[in-house]
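This section describes the prediction task in plain terms. A model, or a person checking by hand, is given the sequence of a single protein chain and must write out its three-dimensional structure as a string of tokens. No templates, partner chains or ligands are provided. The sample shown here is typical of the held-out split.
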Amino acid sequence: MTTIFKILFFFGFILALGFGFSWVADRPGDIWLEWEGQRYQTDLIVAVTALVATVGAVMLSWWLLRTLWTSPHSVRRFFRARKRDRGYQALSTGLIAAGAGNALLARRMSARARSLIRADQEPLIRVLDAQAALIEGRHDEARRLFQEMSEDPETRELGLRGLYVEANRLGAHEAARQYAETAAEAAPYLPWAAKATLEYRCRAGHWDDAIRLLDQQKIAHVLERHEADRLKAVLLTAKAEDQLEAEPTAARDSALKALKLAKDLVPAAIVAAKAYVREDNLRKASSTLEQIWKIEPHPEIARAYVRARLGDSAVDRLKKADKLEALKPNNYESLLAVAEAALDAQDFKKARAKAEAAARMASRERVYLLLADIEEAETGDQGRIRHWMGQALKAPRDPAWVADGHVSERWMPISPVTGRLDAFEWKTPFDQLAGPIEEGTLSEGERALAALPPVARTERPAQPEPTIEAPKPKVVEADSLVIEADAPVKPSKDTKPAKPDTPVMATKESEPAADSVVVEPFFGRPPDDPGVKDPALASSEPKTRLKLF
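The expected answer:
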């Protein structure tokens, strides 16, 4: 743009000069000058031309004189600029070599740059030396150079960054924290310093200091407004959790501020509701949970809402679950909340209907375990219980709080793996993912419901009373005792079953042993007598009538 303006100015000047000469030529006249008794007279156009030529000659003479006067300095400056250009070329080559890991070329280019450029005039030479030292493994020299750079205002931030990285490499976390905090206090716009300081303060539980640093980053425009608001809401929620037991009012205020910044932050709503409950303000607690339930249905919200009042019965909790379903109808979490509350209230029909509807909507582990609990409580059918347990083993896991691959049962403000703020997300762990459902095909839940076995009937059929026909008389000789088997005889109350290993009395009858008659005890016969008969068989075999001779 500057060159264009210069060209336009040159053409404008020539145009104005030509227009001026044309204007003078159109108005002829004479001009005269009297000096020491002599009169000099000429035309006006000639006088103007002579004046312009004189001015040009003076300017040219001044330029020539100035050039001759400053020529030695100009020559020195030319060679100095050439030398500096060669030094910067060597410095550029050395930095590229250091980035590529070529320590030998980086060291050689650093020496050449030092010979062409003064090190106190160009801080990049120290940077190149430090990088070359790190590549060669000379960490002590690198730390010394970083320390020198941290003392120079021009390279202070770069030196602190190098010292921070070296301290982390050596495991000196306290020193790394101090370097990061020093850099963050001096320059809150540095992302690495602000992030590291924020993580350290969060791990230590210094929530107020972390919030103040976050506000400084927001003012310095390091973070976008929505990102800064989200992180501040997370910090306020963590602060509210720490204040909940000792200061419920302060915890409530912090949680409500967090909800204003992030309306879908579930942990903030739960902390606010718990604080309201501690203040015996159940209406406000329920209202807070209902508002976030409309935005983000969550099982923790459902549990907190249903069990907000400890004295409620199972029926009262079921009514609250029904209210949640009315706020968010045809929703997986709503159906499960009602099904769990109905199971506690022993309303098995409603619990089964809601749980099966949830299974058709999403095939997950939790809904199948709930169906197994319903089967156990209602029917006790082990086949159906095993069916639902098998489906739960094959089903994808339910969503959980996940951060950097770590699955947690509760929400935390920072990741325990990397220390990253606002790392936890409510999502399905990546161990098993369900495939897509094609149009026109049954879902996994519908297939599981279709494969459910029928309820096994455990009722026993009624047994008819046995009819005993009178057998033909039989005569059995047993030593000197003659017994006639005639009509059935009612068993005695003192009859006791024989032991399994007791031998049976041998008979002299020519009929098979299977048709022989067992003799009942009489007149105080001992219970281990071989004639004692098992009572279980007494109802199906003919009784005996005893006769003595």
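For orientation: The longest helix spans residues 44-100.
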